[in-house]
Structure formats: structure tokens, C-alpha cells
Design goal:
disordered C terminus, six-stranded mixed sheet, alpha/beta, single chain, 232 residues
């Protein structure tokens, strides 16, 4: 197995076309939620049916929520996919980079367990996923969702999955408008944090939560110790 980094200096859809012309499977991996203040990071791995295409099969960030749902519904019929989810506590413990790699590996390993055959090549958006026990070539490059429909498919699946999770969180953890901001640091979300503090799904290692927690701890420590004094 080889893991190779390369620039986005190749023809769009090149890897898919080459694999499909050889009657091989190809897998794309992407993630969402790395920069959020709350909730999990979600990755998806997807294997498209050869030559499958759709007008909304593109970078999920370029699609409206309604268009992403249409694309997701289409992908359920025209791809095999799996999702890897790593929760906020693991993010705080291991850092977001390592948590994202874990989510990607989980998605890929789960996909390989259900795929009719292993893909010959795995394309990853920006990050080097390493699976030393498997003989699969892995290529990672920036702006993957715009260079590869396989990565675009994974991007859409991960985005819709995470958005739905955060919308459900809004029902049980009200006050942060998760159904609207999905955990990203919007103005309304930050105002909610300032007024009500953090929730059980916030990432305490992220700013501004980290700073808020330190300030709160310093105040608590002062209160517990009481005012200092010296005897004359």
C-alpha cells in the first residue's frame, strides 16, 4: 500500500475515469465539522457506481441544504457508503486532527466490510489516511470535493449526516440553535455561550470555550480560597 500526497494539478475526474475504464472500484473520503464549537466530527467513505453522475454531485459547500438532501437520496441508490463519527470528548482528548483521521479510518474500514470488493484506490480530501494492514493505494490532495465526484459524494453524505445529528441535538439541548448553526461559531451561537455557558456537547479545547473555561476556573479558585490577607 502507498499513501501519496499530490497537488490538485490533474484533470477533474481523472482517477474515477481511469478506474472505471479498468472495471475497478474507487472510493472517496471526506469529513465535515472540523471547525465547529460543538458536536462530533463526521467522515464518510463512498464508492460510486461506475459512471454514475448527477447535477448535484459536487462539493457539498456549493449546494443548498435542499440540494444536498436531493443528492443524498440519489447517492443512497447509486453508491455504497459508510460513516465514521468521533464525538466531542475524543476531539478534546486527542485534538481535532487526530479525531478527524479516526473518523475517516472508521468510515473506510466499515465500508470495506460491506463492499462487494475492495477498491483499488482511495481518494481523500487533504488528509493522509494510513491503513498499513491493507493493500490499497491512497491518494490525498487539497480541494478534493472539486476534483473528484467520489470525494464529493462523501462530502455530501457526511454533511447531511452531521446536519441531521445536530438538528436532533437541538431538540434535547435547546438554547444554542444547533438546528440553524450546526455547532459552528456563528454570532447567535457565541451569544448563547456567553449567556448560558457551554453544553455537554461543546468542545472545551476550542476557542472561545477554552478561554471561557480558564476564566471560570480562575474565578472559582479565588472564591474557594477566599481573599488573601497578611497579619500586621
Amino acid at each position: 500500500m502507498a499513501t501519496v500526497k499530490r497537488k490538485s494539478d490533474f484533470e477533474i475526474q481523472m482517477y474515477e475515469n481511469e478506474a472505471w475504464n479498468r472495471s475497478e472500484l474507487i472510493c472517496g473520503i471526506d469529513e465535515v465539522g472540523r471547525s465547529c464549537l460543538a458536536g462530533p466530527v463526521v467522515a464518510a467513505a463512498a464508492i460510486l457506481k461506475p459512471y454514475a453522475t448527477h447535477k448535484y454531485l459536487k462539493d457539498s459547500k456549493l449546494l443548498s441544504p435542499e440540494q444536498r438532501v436531493v443528492a443524498y437520496t440519489w447517492l443512497m441508490k447509486h453508491s455504497i457508503f459508510s460513516v465514521g463519527i468521533v464525538h466531542h470528548r475524543s476531539i478534546d482528548t486527542h485534538n481535532i486532527y487526530q479525531a478527524t483521521l479516526r473518523a475517516m479510518k472508521r468510515a473506510l474500514v466499515q465500508l470495506l466490510s460491506v463492499a462487494p470488493q475492495s477498491p483499488e484506490i482511495v481518494l481523500v480530501d487533504a488528509m493522509p489516511v494510513l491503513l498499513s494492514s491493507m493493500d490499497i493505494s491512497i491518494i490525498y490532495f487539497p480541494f478534493g470535493e472539486r476534483q473528484s465526484t467520489s470525494i464529493a459524494a462523501a462530502s455530501i453524505i457526511a454533511k447531511v449526516t452531521r446536519d441531521r445529528l445536530m438538528t436532533r441535538m437541538d431538540n434535547v439541548i435547546p438554547g444554542y440553535v444547533f438546528s440553524n448553526n450546526k455547532g459552528y461559531g456563528t454570532k447567535i451561537h457565541k451569544q448563547a455561550l456567553e449567556q448560558g455557558g457551554s453544553s455537554i456537547i461543546h468542545r472545551m479545547s476550542f476557542s472561545p470555550l477554552k478561554e471561557m473555561y480558564v476564566e471560570k476556573s480562575e474565578i472559582t479558585d479565588t472564591d474557594e480560597k477566599g481573599p488573601s490577607c497578611t497579619e500586621e
